[in-house]
Write a structure and sequence with these properties.
The chain is mainly α. It has helices at 2-15, 20-34, 38-46, 49-59, 63-79, 81-87, 90-101, 107-121, 125-133, 136-146, 162-178, 184-190, 194-203, 207-221, 225-233, 236-250, 255-272, 280-283, 287-295, 302-315, 320-328, 331-341, 345-425, 430-441, 451-473, 478-501, 506-529, 535-552, 556-559, 564-567, 575-584, 590-617.
Length: 618
């Protein structure tokens, strides 16, 4: 049975000291029995076989016996935890350091020594402590840097290349030194070789180099913010992102590139898992979109999908750029699809993690929108206040216009009443007033004055106007008085004639009054939109021009060239009909041309205000 075989093999080792080949064959048989057999390994330890092989490895002068003995020790230690605890001493680590440092030690002997170190520190906190305290870890890091060089190295024969196999074993041993359990002291020591690992990744993307380095990096930075920050500071995260970008571009052609891209993805995740803020570095390489492309590959297994989704989750946890990239590349529907179709609990949790980030992102966006809306509301309130101020100004102007219209109407009524009184007193002037009225009807612009009326008008009719104007404005310009006097005289002449003859109907008088008020309103609009013009001087100037034109135009042909606004007289019209009449007129005087331009400018301003209100309401 097994126990009998182990006893016989141990006796063979003891009695074949002069035959290294026989000892090698016995050692090979022993590890074949103990491999993955904890009971056999434990029994071999109990009969003293474990310590005998340990002594044989140190004392034998034959290299093949040393290599076989170290390999057998590794197999037994790996198979049984009690054997691991028995051999985990500083003395054994020091012996292994000697094997690694001797110049006459072959690559295979060094490889077997590294293998024993690996099984001693795996899942063993004491072994991790011994490897650091004895300085063995520093020697392993030196082997990591110097064992191979990627430049000019053919890695196609890695299965038969002893140097590559030694370097690969060193990488695995370093991973065991920092992980399971996590050892921060060893992690801090191992990060010293990060610059070399970064250079290798930049110069070579072969799986034989990328896989061991990514495994070493992942376990060294895991749950260690200090090491993570150092790796990012030297540009390691940028290098990994570039390697992933290159691999995902080749993934459509090579199945191995897909699998290697998953390995790089796991390394990226380990670098940002505890500090998601560093994920912003990946935004400029569009890593999230590349991960989504990789996730859509049908050849991925469940474990690989979980790794990719977790990486996406850590990238989008706090980085807005990555969050936007996830949404822009339809990442949200893809996560929902994974969540609804998958039966794996871990995969479902990973997809939920990403969706939770999206939910948080939605909250942040809503808060920003609220802030923007508050700013918009403040701006709208300010705009409303400004508009209210503008409306108040418009109302003030409108009240002034209404007050001016009322004043003009009142003055017109007073002048009409005074004209009736003068007509009764001076009936002698009927014939002359009738003559001047007929001349006006015939289109003549000659000014005919009644001496009796003129003297009375100068002394009595203008007195109220002067007094009223003095009360309002303090002083009265001589030109303004002359212009007002002429206007009133013409009005009184027409009124006298109507009173004497009885031919002027009430509607005609009312229309004349309305026309006068309308003309005064238009004059005020001109002064409102053209404040640099003086109203009284403007009216006087235009009146003089009308007089001169009337004096020189006596024929019917010249009457057709007159301004319709000037010849409207007492015709009934409103703002629309009067404007249309001025627009049809081909020979507008300067007075009515300015009025028409002011009204058009006013209407354009109203259109602009209405358009602005509509845009804000939309």
């Amino acid at each position: 049975d097994m126990k009998t075989d182990l006893n016989l093999l141990l006796e063979c080792l003891k009695y074949q000291m002069d035959c290294p080949q026989s000892q090698k064959e016995a050692l090979i048989t022993i590890y074949s029995i103990c491999q993955r057999n904890s009971e056999a390994s434990e029994y071999f330890r109990e009969i003293g076989g474990l310590m005998f092989i340990n002594d044989l490895a140190k004392s034998s002068v034959h290299c093949i016996v040393k290599e076989a003995a170290l390999f057998t020790l590794g197999i037994i230690i790996e198979s049984n935890v009690y054997c691991q605890q028995t051999l985990c001493t500083s003395a054994l680590f020091e012996d292994l350091i000697l094997f690694l440092m001797k110049k006459d030690s072959g690559v295979n002997l060094k490889r077997m020594s590294v293998y024993v170190i690996l099984v001693l520190v795996s899942n063993n906190k004491n072994g991790q402590t011994y490897v650091r305290d004895t300085g063995c870890i520093s020697l392993l890091l030196q082997l990591f840097r110097t064992t191979i060089s990627t430049s000019g190295k053919n890695l196609s024969d890695e299965n038969t290349d002893p140097c590559y196999q030694l370097w690969s074993s060193v990488c695995s041993t370093l991973c065991a030194c920092v992980n399971n359990p996590q050892n921060e002291d060893n992690q801090n020591i191992c990060c010293s070789v990060f610059p070399f690992a970064k250079e290798w990744l930049e110069s070579c993307t072969e799986p034989e180099i990328v896989r061991p380095i990514c495994s070493f990096l992942s376990l060294t930075v895991a749950n260690n913010s200090f090491v993570q920050k150092y790796f990012v500071s030297i540009g390691g995260l940028d290098t990994l992102a570039k390697v992933l970008l290159e691999l995902t571009h080749d993934s459509c052609l090579s199945h191995s590139s897909i699998k290697l891209a998953v390995v790089v993805t796991k390394t990226l995740d380990a670098c940002i898992a505890n500090n998601s803020a560093m994920g912003v570095v990946l935004a400029k390489y569009r890593t999230v979109s590349e991960l989504l492309k990789l996730l859509s590959n049908e050849t991925l297994n469940t474990g690989e999908k979980i790794s990719i989704i977790l990486t996406i989750g850590h990238c989008t946890e706090v980085c807005e750029e990555n969050q936007c990239e996830l949404l822009q590349n339809n990442g949200l529907p893809l996560m929902i699809q994974v969540l609804t179709e998958s039966q794996d609990e871990e995969l479902t949790k990973a997809a939920t993690f990403v969706l939770q980030n999206c939910k948080q992102m939605t909250k942040q966006l809503s808060l920003k929108l609220n802030e923007n809306s508050l700013n918009v509301n403040n701006a709208e309130e300010l705009d409303v206040q400004v508009r209210k101020g503008c409306l108040q100004d418009y109302w003030k102007k409108a009240k002034e216009i209404l007050h001016r219209i009322n004043s003009i109407e009142k003055e017109h009524d007073e002048e009409r009443l005074q004209g009736e009184v003068f007509a009764n007193k001076f009936s002698v002037a009927n014939s002359e007033a009738l003559k001047s009225h007929k001349m006006c009807k015939e289109g003549s612009h000659e000014q005919v004055y009644c001496p009796q009326l003129t003297s009375k008008l100068n002394n009595q009719v203008l007195a109220p106007s002067v007094t009223s104007g003095s009360r309002k404005n303090g002083t009265l310009n001589t030109t303004d008085a002359a212009s007002t006097r002429q206007t009133v005289q013409r009005s009184i002449r027409c009124s006298v004639h109507e009173l004497q003859t009885g031919s002027g109907p009430q509607s005609h008088r009312i229309n004349g009054k309305t026309a006068c008020v309308k003309n005064q309103c238009y004059i005020f609009l001109v002064t409102f939109f053209l404040p640099h013009l003086d109203q009284h001087s403007f009216c006087s100037e235009k009146t003089e021009k009308v007089k001169s034109t009337s004096a020189t135009s006596s024929s019917h042909k010249m009457e057709d060239l007159r301004c319709l606004g000037c010849t409207a007289g007492g015709l009934s019209f409103n703002s629309k009909t009067f404007t249309k009449m001025l627009q049809r007129c081909l020979h507008r005087c300067d007075h009515h041309r300015v009025i028409l331009e002011a009204e058009e400018r006013y209407r354009r301003e109203l259109c602009k205000m209405a358009a602005g209100n509509n845009s804000r309401a939309a």
